[in-house]
Amino acid sequence: MSGTLVLVRHGQSEWNLKNLFTGWRDVDLSEQGLAEAKAAGQKLKARGMKFDIAFTSALMRAQKTCQYILDATGQSDLKTIRDKALNERDYGDLNGLNKDDARAKWGEEQVHIWRRSYDTPPPGGESLKDTGARVWPYYMYEMQPYVLRGETVLVAAHGNSLRALIMALEGISGPDIVKLELGTGVPIVYRLNADSTVASKEVLEG
């Protein structure tokens, strides 16, 4: 068996709360999101989890979630790499819009396709496939080497960048990965084999 990869979707953001498309907009955590980030840290601390390195996106909500987790595990000063390759999917013209207003403008069916299809991007934005095209090489070249050396890696990112990563880890198809729901602030602990395949997966809910 090789190393450990811990994935955490950031806690609820202020725009999650307001039902807005957030994408690359740099919004803060809500009060609930702060509590979720701290709770994620406590769950990992209770497991005796210690990290060798952390990765997060260029967006504040993921960075703060990452920091709260590291604070809880007594690793506030751990080396943390921030990169836009792990950013949320860019929703393009939908960024900042209320989801109900978007449905009124473009229609329920079209907005559903943009949100839940694998390879149809919204106007000016990215599909999940596009998001994967930046997440996958970043994982392979920047993160995976640490795991394959037997280290423990924390990744605090976003619903869609993590979906893309999970798709690669578990070999999930495009149509199936868009159905995967990731709870905010819920750690997913993967143990990987030396050949990079998944040995075990545990979702730390509740």
Automatic annotation (TrEMBL):
The keyword Nuclease does not apply. InterPro entries: His_Pase_superF_clade-1, His_PPase_superfam, PG/BPGM_mutase_AS, Phosphogly_mut1. Belongs to the phosphoglycerate mutase family. BPG-dependent PGAM subfamily. This is 2,3-bisphosphoglycerate-dependent phosphoglycerate mutase. It catalyses: (2R)-2-phosphoglycerate = (2R)-3-phosphoglycerate. Catalyzes the interconversion of 2-phosphoglycerate and 3-phosphoglycerate. SMART domains: PGAM. The record marks 158 as: Transition state stabilizer. GO terms for molecular function: phosphoglycerate mutase activity. Keywords: Gluconeogenesis, Glycolysis, Isomerase. Pathway: Carbohydrate degradation; glycolysis; pyruvate from D-glyceraldehyde 3-phosphate: step 3/5. The active site is at 10 (tele-phosphohistidine intermediate), 88 (proton donor/acceptor). PROSITE patterns: PG_MUTASE. It comes from Neomesorhizobium albiziae. Its EC number is 5.4.2.11. One of its GO terms (biological process) is gluconeogenesis. Homodimer. Substrate binds at residues 9-16, 22-23, 61, 88-91, 99, 115-116, 159-160.
